[in-house]
């Protein structure tokens, strides 16, 4: 599931933007979907925008139980 944000919506929810490992993630900077995913953050391969991972501080299995 994915959602496209308007500029106004981005301003409102920007602090909530996270990378969701089990979803398609559109870059808020350029709209592309290719990411370099690390342990705690994901970085856009095209423009370098970095997002925190949604479950960076939770056990990995939590999402799947
Ligand atoms: Zn980007």
From TrEMBL:
The source's superkingdom equals Bacteria
Protein name, UniProt field: Uncharacterized protein
């Amino acid at each position: 599931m994915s959602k496209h944000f308007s500029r106004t919506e981005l301003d409102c929810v920007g602090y909530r933007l996270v990378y969701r490992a089990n979803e398609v993630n559109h870059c808020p900077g350029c709209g592309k979907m290719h990411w370099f995913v690390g342990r705690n953050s994901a970085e856009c391969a095209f423009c370098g925008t970095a997002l925190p991972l949604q479950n960076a501080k939770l056990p990995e299995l939590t999402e799947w139980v």
